[in-house]
């Protein structure tokens, strides 16, 4: 009995099929920029009260070559206590991704969902390490549904009449 490899869609796997289908590769993941500030230290360590946290996400996409993109996921976490900034942690987690064989919509979706999904665990860990190294209690960011954020971005584009202006075309996206 001969074994035959099959692709996930049930088609026979062959070098021709592998080369012609969409391909996604992670070439490199790296910290592009990092910053931590505790402007009120050491007095802030004695403050009483409930800390207030505000998180801001940004995403930038830059085409490096025909099938290579740099995606930068920016995470800024600001903690305030008694209306004073306890700390500010900023991370720009970046990656170089290979994307080939995608149509325009598929490419935009990959850049808006899969790439930030790959970067987020690294950014999350970097933020947690910064906060703890800054002398504050450990804090772990909750998971983020990038598919939902991307769907909201598409809805906003449609309202603004920019349906054709995808992440790959614009080479930069604002707040996620």
Major β-sheet, in short?
4 strands, antiparallel
- Under the CATH scheme, which class? Alpha Beta
Distance between the termini: 52 Å
Number of strands: 4
For this structure, what is the CATH homologous superfamily?
A: SecB-like
Kindly estimate the percentage of residues that lie in beta strands according to DSSP.
Answer: 25-35%
Strand order of the largest sheet: 1-4-3-2
Content-based structural category: alpha+beta
Low-confidence stretches: 1-17, 169-176
The CATH architecture would be Roll
- How big is the Rg? 20 Å
Q: N-to-C SSE series? A: HEEEEHHH
Number of domains: 1
Nearest-integer average pLDDT:
85
Number of helices: 4
Question: What fraction, in percent, of the residue positions are helical?
Answer: 25-40%
CATH topology: Bacterial Protein-export protein SecB
């Amino acid at each position: 009995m001969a074994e035959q490899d099959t692709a996930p869609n049930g088609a026979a796997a062959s070098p021709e099929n592998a080369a012609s289908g969409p391909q996604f590769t992670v070439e490199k993941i790296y910290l592009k920029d990092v910053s931590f500030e505790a402007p009120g230290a050491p007095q802030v360590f004695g403050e009483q009260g409930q800390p207030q946290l505000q998180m801001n996400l940004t995403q930038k996409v830059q085409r490096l070559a025909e099938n290579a993109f740099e995606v930068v996921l920016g995470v800024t976490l600001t903690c305030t206590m008694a209306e004073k900034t306890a700390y500010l942690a900023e991370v720009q987690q970046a990656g170089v991704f290979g994307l080939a064989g995608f149509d325009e919509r598929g490419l935009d979706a990959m850049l808006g969902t899969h790439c930030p999904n790959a970067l987020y665990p690294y950014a999350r860990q970097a933020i947690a390490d910064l906060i703890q190294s800054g002398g504050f209690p450990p804090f772990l960011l909750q998971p983020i549904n990038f598919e939902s954020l991307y769907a909201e971005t598409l809805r906003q584009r449609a309202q603004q009449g920019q349906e054709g202006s995808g992440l790959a075309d614009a080479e930069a996206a604002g707040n996620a």
